[in-house]
Backbone:
C-alpha cells in the first residue's frame, strides 16, 4: 500500500521514541512496509549529554534504502540541544521509511522523536 489517505483518518496516535545515538547509523523510528499507516513527524531533538565535549550528528530520512540528509555533520555543543524537526517543518514518513541518526562520539548524544501515527482504516 502507498501512503494512507490522511483525509479519511480513523485514528491518530501520539508517540515518542528515544535513543542514544551511536557512531553507526541507528534507526530511531521505522514505519514498516504494509503498515497501512503514515507517520507525521512533529519534532526531533538531539541533546548532547556530555558536559565537556562537543559532538557531531548526522540525521537521515531513509526511503528505499537511500538516505537523505535532514542534518549533515552538525555540531551539538556540550550540554546543549539541537532541534532538527519542529512543527514548523514537520515531515511525513510513508510505509518503509525510517529516520536514522549517527554520532561522532558514542555515548554523547541522545535523540527524542515525537510523531503521530495516522491510520485510515
Residues:
Amino acid at each position: 500500500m502507498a501512503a494512507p489517505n490522511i483525509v479519511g483518518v480513523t485514528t491518530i496516535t501520539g508517540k515518542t521514541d528515544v535513543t542514544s545515538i551511536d557512531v553507526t547509523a541507528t534507526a530511531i523510528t521505522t514505519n514498516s512496509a504494509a503498515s497501512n499507516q503514515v507517520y507525521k513527524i512533529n519534532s526531533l531533538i538531539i541533546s548532547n549529554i556530555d558536559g565537556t565535549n562537543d559532538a557531531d550528528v548526522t540525521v537521515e530520512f531513509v526511503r528505499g534504502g537511500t538516505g537523505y540528509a535532514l542534518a549533515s555533520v552538525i555540531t551539538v555543543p556540550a550540554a546543549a540541544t539541537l532541534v532538527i524537526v519542529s512543527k514548523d517543518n514537520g515531515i511525513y514518513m510513508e510505509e518503509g521509511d525510517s529516520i536514522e541518526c549517527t554520532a561522532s562520539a558514542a555515548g554523547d548524544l541522545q535523540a527524542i522523536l515525537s510523531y503521530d501515527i495516522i491510520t485510515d482504516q
